[in-house]
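Request: Not sure, any thoughts?
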Amino acid sequence: MKSWARHPLRVTGRLLWLGAELLLAAIRYVRHCAFQSQDSLLLSRGKWLQLSSRRVLRIFQVETQSVGSVPLNGLLVCNHLSYLDVLVLAALTPSSFVAKSEVRHWPVFGWFARLAGTIFVNRNKPSQAAQSADEMAVALRDGALVVLFPEGTSSGGETVLPFKSSLLEPATRQVHALTAGLIAYEITDGVVSEEVCYWRDMTLMPHLINLLSKQAIRATVSFTELRYGSTNRKELARQLHSEVLRLKESFAA
């Protein structure tokens, strides 16, 4: 791991810091979430994840800024670049996330995801999409902000991949706020697409170690509310995709 060799004190110190923060997060979870009733668990988890994400982002030296009104409830769809996306969005507002089932087994982030009540989707079993959609509908009904990355995978950020519509069904059934979001990163000592974005055949731990070696990262999240949705999930996917593309063009301008 060349980045560790180049910055041994920085990486080692941040790894130790990360371990300490994970321990503190576990303690806070037991105190504030473990014994909550089902009715209050969703809100408690969202607040726990927000505080924990803010503290972990400090380890990575991530400075976050938002453009537009930060949503408080309803469905938020966003482009997907990195595992940092979850921390950045959760730090801005209490959230419930939808993620691929593989995330459940990731070191560090999988543990966070399970405790936070993430809705996991098995991409190899499309028949389970209905169950995941039902879980999303319950969270939306209870007033949560549900975050979905409808590209289905992360990318290097050059474009926004087409949105998969299968998990947008809950947004067509009832009236919920619909928000499109765009995440963009900047670093001065590296290349975003290769060192912040987590995609292609990258492996988590080497990527994480390299990310911990960076001086600082800037994350910008832009939001826009979709005023008129659609009762057709495929049409809704196209609408939301168009809004995210528009945000991307505005950010690049």
Observations:
- The chain has a mean pLDDT of 92.
